[in-house]
Design brief:
single chain, alpha+beta, seven-stranded mixed β-sheet, two-stranded antiparallel sheet, 2 helices, globular
Length: 161
């Protein structure tokens, strides 16, 4: 399945760029699908998460305190969870490349101790780990580059699964 990185201008700004991933078969990005799946049950949490993404893009950048790092299974996969409001349990899994680029994926309610105990969250994290490997490989071989201002990707945005 072919997918591609898409830039999200409504969330991005002068401090950081927010990307998501869209597959050829889908009409919506992973982030938009996450919003659609959770809006009925968790609208306040979604507003908090999208507000946090806007703040990352425009005010603070993708600083470490906004993320729970090392959510993936490999030490270098860059998969993390965006912290939500304390005592809330909606998780958005991301790839945090650096302080200026975040790739938002999917997620869902976390009602278990570890994401591995929930089949849906497990699929979401494994999918982000897969895409992270593709992005890191493409950055390594030069087919994908970070622009000189550090804010955007340049080059081949296709991610073949």
């Amino acid at each position: 399945m072919k997918s591609r990185l898409i830039y999200l201008p409504r969330l991005s700004g002068r401090k950081a760029s927010i990307y998501s991933i869209i597959s050829e078969e889908s009409k919506v990005s992973l982030l938009d699908n996450f919003i659609l799946e959770n809006k009925a049950e968790s609208m306040q949490d979604l507003l908090s998460i999208t507000g946090r993404l806007r703040s990352i893009g425009n005010t603070a950048g993708a600083i470490l305190p906004f993320f729970k790092m090392d959510e993936g299974l490999e030490w270098d996969d860059l998969v993390c969870a965006l912290y939500d409001v304390p005592d809330r349990h909606l998780r958005l899994y991301c790839i945090r490349l650096n302080d200026q680029i975040v790739i938002a994926g999917g997620g869902g309610p976390k009602n278990v101790r570890a994401w591995q105990q929930d089949p849906k969250l497990g699929r979401e994290v494994l999918e982000m780990m897969h895409y992270s490997k593709i992005v890191r490989t493409k950055l390594g071989n030069g087919r994908l580059r970070i622009a000189s201002d550090g804010l955007k990707f340049e080059g081949d945005l296709m991610l073949t699964k």
